[in-house]
């Protein structure tokens, strides 16, 4: 009996660790500041709304203020159609935090991750941007990078997830909501692989 319990604990730990690493790739993990190679400056920071939009925006602002890129692209339509778009709210939050208006570009029409990628690509192409840092929540990072990579054929994309937000943290596996998010993302990644993402 004790061997079964130990085996179950070990199996659960492997699953949790594997999901955490898989869902939340972080290409800047070993970078203390902009430098060379994978730690070089980017042309832009892309941040998509959804989940804890404020935490995502704050992470993009932090990257901007530590000279990771000279431009922030905020992307997302309004969750509540009677109010401003998520992108507009993100824009205002960045401006209130000291980011110059000229350093922010808004994309206000996308309602899904796939649409985020499609619409932001128009901005990327028009500005001839070749290197971006993509910011979103940890649970959403893998799928977001897949969607953006499918659109951005000639653009280097580096992922940088928010480690802590209202919906996700390293302790996500202790809550039913954390499992709901993780398994939901795995399902959506599967749909993406089948060409069925929206």
Automatic annotation (TrEMBL):
<dbReference type="Pfam" id="PF02698">
    <property type="entry name" value="DUF218"/>
</dbReference>
<keyword id="KW-0472">Membrane</keyword>
<keyword id="KW-1133">Transmembrane helix</keyword>
<feature type="transmembrane region" description="Helical">
    <location>
        <begin position="5"/>
        <end position="23"/>
    </location>
</feature>
<dbReference type="GO" id="GO:0000270">
    <property type="term" value="P:peptidoglycan metabolic process"/>
</dbReference>
<dbReference type="GO" id="GO:0043164">
    <property type="term" value="P:Gram-negative-bacterium-type cell wall biogenesis"/>
</dbReference>
<feature type="domain" description="DUF218">
    <location>
        <begin position="43"/>
        <end position="157"/>
    </location>
</feature>
<keyword id="KW-0812">Transmembrane</keyword>
<protein>
    <recommendedName>
        <fullName>DUF218 domain-containing protein</fullName>
    </recommendedName>
</protein>
<dbReference type="InterPro" id="IPR014729">
    <property type="entry name" value="Rossmann-like_a/b/a_fold"/>
</dbReference>
<dbReference type="InterPro" id="IPR003848">
    <property type="entry name" value="DUF218"/>
</dbReference>
<dbReference type="GO" id="GO:0005886">
    <property type="term" value="C:plasma membrane"/>
</dbReference>
<dbReference type="InterPro" id="IPR051599">
    <property type="entry name" value="Cell_Envelope_Assoc"/>
</dbReference>
